């Protein structure tokens, strides 16, 4: 059973509206009230916003939602259990979120406990990974080919989603601060995901909620994720809260399934 309140519904409306209708719904819970709203909105345009009290939990929720999407398709795809993320990435400290992460130092002592259903490809890090004299276009094409090869290596029919941060903030052993992707990168990654029927999950816990000049970092390039995590800036330092937004592709399937 789920409960709601006017403030959680107002936040959900704000979050969904801030995507200009690109994302469909959301979910809201914080550590103080443990409020979760599902089917909480009277207005069907806004129902179902998801939020958690830390980004790690939001990432766990994103991974579970991706799996649920494939299980609720008219022809379920239970073989989709694999996730592809990026080297040096950090998506959270729970076992689920840490399994997605490519941050070797944070993973090291927990490695035997982490999921084996995750693999990692090169990050879009021009300082570390771009070849001398390589253009941005050539760099993006090379990374897209690497992602496509990884899909084929693990079996494209087994992949749930590709997970990445639009702007990286905790980049493992790379010893850098904030690292944005080059123009065209996420458009190319989304094309690879679409080619193989996988979802795109964007982790905006650190870079979202206005920190890049738009409410959501993906709005800079207009590449809409299927699932998005948010946090940090969402609470503005006043309350421990994070969130999850789901796109129409995902919600339409759930609406026709379990609801």
List the helices and strands and how they pair.
Blueprint: H1 6-17, E1 23-25, E2 50-52, H2 55-71, E3 82-86, H3 95-100, H4 104-107, E4 118-121, H5 126-129, H6 136-154, E5 159-164, E6 167-168, E7 179-180, H7 185-195, E8 199-204, E9 227-230, E10 242-247, H8 248-256
Parallel strand pairs: 3-4, 3-5, 5-8, 8-9
Antiparallel strand pairs: 1-10, 2-10, 6-7, 9-10
Briefly characterize the structure:
The chain is an alpha/beta fold and 259 residues long.
Overall description:
The chain has 259 residues and is an alpha/beta fold. The protein is 32% helix and 16% strand. It is built from 8 helices and 10 strands. α2 (55-71) packs across α8 (248-256) and α6 (136-154) packs parallel to α7. The longest helix has 19 residues, at 136-154. The two termini are 14 Å apart. The model is unreliable at 31-51 (pLDDT under 50).
Determine the N-to-C terminus distance.
Answer: 14 Å
| Global outline | globular
How much is the average pLDDT? 86
Q: How would you spell out the order of helices and strands?
A: HEEHEHHEHHEEEHEEEH
Helix-and-strand structural type: alpha/beta
Number of helices: 8
Task: Provide keyphrases for this structure.
259 residues; alpha/beta; eight-stranded mixed beta sheet; two-stranded antiparallel sheet; 10 strands; 32% helix; 16% strand
């Amino acid at each position: 059973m789920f409960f709601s309140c006017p403030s959680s519904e107002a936040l959900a409306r704000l979050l969904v509206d801030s995507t200009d209708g690109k994302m469909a719904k959301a979910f809201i819970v914080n550590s103080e009230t443990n409020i979760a709203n599902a089917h909480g909105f009277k207005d069907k345009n806004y129902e179902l916003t998801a939020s958690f009290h830390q980004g790690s939990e939001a990432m766990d929720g994103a991974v579970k939602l991706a799996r649920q999407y494939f299980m609720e398709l008219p022809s379920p795809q239970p073989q989709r259990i694999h996730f592809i993320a990026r080297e040096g990435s950090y998506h959270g400290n729970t076992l689920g979120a840490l399994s997605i992460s490519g941050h070797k130092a944070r993973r090291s002592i927990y490695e035997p406990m982490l999921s084996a259903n995750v693999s990692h490809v090169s990050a879009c890090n021009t300082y570390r990974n771009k070849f001398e004299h390589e253009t941005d276009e050539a760099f993006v094409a090379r990374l897209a080919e690497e992602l496509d090869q990884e899909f084929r290596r693990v079996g494209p029919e087994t992949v749930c989603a590709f997970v990445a941060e639009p702007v990286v903030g905790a980049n493992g052993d790379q010893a850098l601060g904030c690292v944005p992707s080059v123009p065209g990168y996420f458009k190319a990654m989304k094309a690879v995901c679409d080619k193989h029927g996988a979802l795109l999950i964007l982790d905006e816990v650190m870079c979202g909620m206005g920190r890049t000049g738009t409410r959501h970092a993906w709005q800079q390039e207009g590449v809409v994720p299927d699932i998005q995590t948010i946090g940090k800036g969402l609470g503005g330092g006043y309350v421990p809260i994070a969130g999850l937004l789901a796109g129409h592709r995902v919600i339409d399937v759930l609406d026709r399934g379990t609801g």
